[in-house]
Design brief:
CATH class: Alpha Beta
Largest sheet: 9 strands, mixed
Strand content: 15-25%
CATH superfamily: Protein of unknown function UPF0759
Helix content: 25-40%
Mean pLDDT: 93
Number of strands: 11
Low-confidence stretches: 304-316
Strand order of the largest sheet: 2-3-6-7-8-9-10-1-11
Order of helices and strands: EHHEHEEHEHEHEHEEHHHEHE
Structural class: alpha/beta
Number of domains: 1
CATH topology: TIM Barrel
Shape: globular
Oligomer: single chain
CATH architecture: Alpha-Beta Barrel
């Protein structure tokens, strides 16, 4: 059976800082060390909004124990999202050819896209060198549907290009339009990922009568399986909010978490490692639910400061 590693999709959300960390844990360094003494993996989502300097990744590597793993969400421009021009570095802004009325960059030139990939890879390098780099989360825009053949083709080409530019780093692909796993398209999607060594990202998200979100499909296309738990806040999922955490303001019940226990166990039978990452980072919900599902899965508690994967104990 494969190993199961459980973590959260942030350790710095303001409401999480206020609700989960003790008052004595104040600095950025203290928070990461505190988190890394309780979980052995985390997903860094802030690079989606702006590419940090490599010194940031270097500090992350230095502040976490051996065996700790960071997954990193790809910068938005790399996955087909528009980004605020002011979020680009000075060097990248020189390559911008068009900005829309909202001050956002979209449809980058090949020159700009190449430079963005290069800067993003430079940011990742300290984690790669330290042996703490997990996968890059390629979260695709929700409007990219498999039924739009032209856009779908462009999207798949973008993924292949990303794999080339980020060679040596695993890609974790999160589709957000259900057409990618509907009917016969599901087999085609999984084959595309498996043939290229890209991991399908299974998700738990609110479900609607119009089936507008990804279904809770658990699937493994590589020796890594990756699960993101977005919460089930139907009222807020499509709304506009002050922060990203507001959209995922949801605490899973024990019964809801239990729905994923057999799915994760099945994935552990197919993959060497299963990553279960909680994105409901409002208040202390993500770390609380992460610990709860770890107990349900009989993953040995992590908290001694000794990093490393925990083997799944199926029990009897």
């Amino acid at each position: 059976m494969g190993a199961i590693r459980v973590g959260t999709c942030s350790w710095t959300d303001k409401t999480m800082v206020a609700a989960w960390y003790p008052p004595s844990v104040r600095s950025a360094e203290q928070r990461l060390r505190y988190y890394a003494a309780r979980f052995d993996t985390v997903e860094a989502d802030s690079p989606f909004y702006a590419i940090p300097r490599s010194s940031v990744a270097q500090a992350w590597a230095e502040r976490t124990p051996d065996g700790f793993v960071f997954h990193v969400k790809a910068f938005g421009l790399l996955t087909g999202h528009s980004v605020e021009e002011q979020r680009l570095s000075a060097d990248l802004r020189e390559l911008v050819t068009h900005v829309d009325a909202r001050g956002r960059v979209r449809d980058p030139s090949s020159e700009l896209l190449d430079a963005v990939f290069e800067e993003f890879r430079t940011f990742l390098e300290p984690l790669v060198v330290a042996g703490k780099m997990g996968g890059v989360l390629m979260q695709l825009p929700p409007w990219v549907a498999a039924t739009d053949k032209h856009r779908a083709h462009e999207t798949l080409e973008r993924l292949e290009y990303a794999a080339e530019r980020l060679e040596g780093v695993r890609l974790l692909v999160e589709f957000r339009h259900p057409s990618w796993v509907s009917g016969r398209q599901q087999a085609q999607t999984m084959r595309f990922l498996a043939d290229r060594g890209m991991a399908y990202v299974s998700v738990d998200a609110p479900q609607f009568p119009d089936a507008s979100t990804m279904p809770p499909l658990a699937a493994a296309t590589t020796d890594w399986a990756y699960v993101r738990m977005h919460g089930r806040n139907r009222e807020a999922y499509y709304g506009k909010h002050a922060s990203a955490a507001d959209r995922f303001h949801y605490l899973y019940t024990a019964d809801e978490l239990a729905e994923w226990v057999p799915k994760v166990r099945e994935l552990a039978g197919q993959a060497q490692t299963v990553w279960v990452m909680f994105n409901n980072c409002k208040h202390d919900y993500a770390p609380r639910n992460a610990r709860e599902i770890a107990e349900m899965l009989r993953v040995e508690p992590y908290g001694s400061g000794n990093a490393g994967s925990q083997q799944l104990d199926l029990g009897v």
